[in-house]
């Protein structure tokens, strides 16, 4: 049965700054859930720490607001316990590409069947505007008043090389495209990475809605001939930043998921398996 919008509404309204790009992501997640036809109680939103990581509080389904940089291992645990659930990880660039970078990479090489949404606003918004791993070189913040020296993390190139089996990018100012990408990411069987260009209207005065609107290019349009199964073409698309930023599906491939390869899950989700005949005393004895 299709989900109605009102059943996804929570009593509280998000407390993001007016105009924050997270509002577009919030809308798109709910629109995607309405389109996907998955029962509401079969979703779990798992988030880290940051402005956008408050998302599970404002979408009425199961959720887990975890620690900074830790949504990927928690989501992996959810999938191992009940791999029939639809798990969406959500967090910011500081959370996923900074403190959570190790978890981000290992999630992709395992290929759990999850969608990981990264709200990439190129700044730490919740802590009032410090440089993040994706801040552009030269960007001035309270933590780098003379401008960023480091080369920014390229999340698309990283995801393509680390083994993600679906890699895409969206812009939170284009809710229709974003909704479609979330639907595709959930429907993909494997780890789907969706980096979302998300303006932080309060602390990032450079990468604004207008700045992105002037640069975003939909892959596959204007006969650019992008082949989503071509890893080299995906790398090439990932190198574009500045005059043109590609949105859409960069890369996808079919591979067995981690859950599909685990013999312990062949009999069904762990939560449904009987533990009556399992004796853990030998294991406990070894630890004594
Ligand atoms: Fe959004 Fe930035 Fe405000 Fe955080 S600080 S709610 S990212 S506009």
Provide a short characterization of the protein structure.
With about 290 residues, this protein is an alpha/beta fold.
Describe this entry's structure for a reader:
There is one protein chain. With 288 residues, the protein is α/β, with parallel strands linked by helices. 32% of the residues lie in helices and 17% in strands. It has eleven helices and ten strands. The chain has an eight-stranded mixed β-sheet with strand order 2-1-3-4-8-7-10-9, with helices on both faces. β9, α9 and β10 form a beta-alpha-beta unit. It is globular and about 60 Å long. The mean pLDDT is 96. The structure holds iron/sulfur cluster. The site of iron/sulfur cluster has 12 residues, from loops.
């Amino acid at each position: 049965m299709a989900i109605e919008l009102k059943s996804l509404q929570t009593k509280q309204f998000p407390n993001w700054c007016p105009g924050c790009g997270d509002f577009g992501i919030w809308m798109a997640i709910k629109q995607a859930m309405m389109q996907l036809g998955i029962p509401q109680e079969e979703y779990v939103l798992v988030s880290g720490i940051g402005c956008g990581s408050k998302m599970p509080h404002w979408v009425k389904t199961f959720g887990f607001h975890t620690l900074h940089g830790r949504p990927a291992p928690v989501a992996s645990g959810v999938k191992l316990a009940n791999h029939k659930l639809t798990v969406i990880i959500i967090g910011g660039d500081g959370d996923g590409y900074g403190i959570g970078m190790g978890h981000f990479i290992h999630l992709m090489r395992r290929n759990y069947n999850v969608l990981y949404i990264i709200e990439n606003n190129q700044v730490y918004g919740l802590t009032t505007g410090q440089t993040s791993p994706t801040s552009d070189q030269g960007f001035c913040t309270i933590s780098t008043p003379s401008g960023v020296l480091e080369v920014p993390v390229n999340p698309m190139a990283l995801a393509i090389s680390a083994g993600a089996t679906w890699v895409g990018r969206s812009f939170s100012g284009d809710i229709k495209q974003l909704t479609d990408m979330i639907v595709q990411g959930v429907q993909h069987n494997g780890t789907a990475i969706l980096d979302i260009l998300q303006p932080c209207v309060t602390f990032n005065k450079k990468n604004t809605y207008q700045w992105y609107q002037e640069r975003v290019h939909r892959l596959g349009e204007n006969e650019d001939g992008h082949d989503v199964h071509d890893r080299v073409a995906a790398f090439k698309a990932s190198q574009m930043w500045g005059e043109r930023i590609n949105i859409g599906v960069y890369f996808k491939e079919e591979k067995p998921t981690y859950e599909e390869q685990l013999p312990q899950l062949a009999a069904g989700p762990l939560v449904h398996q009987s533990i009556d005949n399992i004796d853990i005393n030998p294991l406990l004895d070894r630890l004594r």
